[in-house]
Amino acid sequence: MWIILIVALSDTAIVGPALGLTLKDLYPFGDQAGDEALSKNDDGSSPPIPISTLFPFFNHQHSKLFVSTNGVISFLQGVSTFTPDPFPIANDARMIAAFWADIDTRNGGTVWYRETTDAVLLDRATKEVTNNYPNFFRFKASWVFIATWDRVAFYGCSDEGCSKTNTFQAVLITNGQHSFTIYNYEDIQWTTGKASGGESATGLGGTPAQVFIYSSNNLFITRGPWATSLLSNDNHDKSSLMKSYTKYLNNVVKYILYKKIFKIFLKIFLCLTLSSFCNWMISQSYYS
């Protein structure tokens, strides 16, 4: 069983379409794509969503999932917590957090989701995996789940703050044996809701959003925001690479947040899900 995370961060208003993600680069979403939408809410979640294919997540197979307003897909229950918890979160928590923060769609935006076996999208997902991971050249996607947080605002925003919105997407892909998650970030303008210590006019400061994949002792986390680290019960020589990369990212956090001209791909592979240790490798990064 494998789980692979691909993260893409960018802002196309400055980078331009040749370098950054645009809405057309995201997987199709919205009414026209046949999505379901969460009702406008604060700290809400979908009911259990039955899925037609078992999704392997570390050493578990899941037949349902939950999409939460606050930027999380979970497998055991919906997530209403608005300030990201310290780790470990809870015993046997299983979460995929594209952008865990205090989102309030009553102030703007929509959360969309659907599963699909559309041949065109399966082909796209297959190519994204095989193009990024040549060792998976035989991989053929059989199922995709797409969750999109479209122009979502933060809790407690002022009139000025509510004009700052985030658009991002989590795409779950499997062939029934191997699992992949792709995070797409089209535009990130805020990191923190007011109840988490953020400024009402900017959505910055306080306890910012987190990006991670979490299941019990297996964790890949992007902190503070966009500083990367690996937490594991098992020390490994790759940890020095991760710590070094974390330091590098910390040096450019303000550049990422305020200039918004940063694009990075994190490619992580070889997740040994039965051993409580994942060997994570960052294989590419781009910035300008």
Structure description:
This is Sushi, nidogen and EGF-like domain-containing protein 1. Strand 11 and strand 12 form a beta hairpin. The chain is mostly beta strands. It has helices at 12-15, 119-132, 239-250, 253-259, and strands at residues 2-9, 36-37, 49-57, 60-68, 72-74, 94-100, 110-116, 143-152, 166-174, 178-187, 210-215, 218-223, 227-231, 262-267, 271-272, 277-278, 286-287. The protein has one domain. The strands form 3 sheets. Strands 2-7-8-9-10-1-14-17 form an 8-stranded mixed β-sheet. Strands 3-4-5-6-11-12-13 form a 7-stranded antiparallel β-sheet. The chain starts with a strand and ends with a strand.
In a few lines, what is going on in this structure?
By secondary structure, this protein is mainly β. The chain has one domain.
Runs in which pLDDT lies below 50 for 5 or more consecutive residues are 1-20, 218-288
The largest beta-sheet arranges its strands as 2-7-8-9-10-1-14-17
Provide the helix percentage: 10-25%
Strand content: 35-45%
| Structural class designation | mainly beta
InterPro entries: Epithelial_Barrier/Signaling, NIDO_dom
Pfam families: NIDO
Protein name: Sushi, nidogen and EGF-like domain-containing protein 1
What attributes characterize this protein structure?
single chain; mainly beta; eight-stranded mixed sheet; seven-stranded antiparallel sheet; 4 helices; disordered C terminus
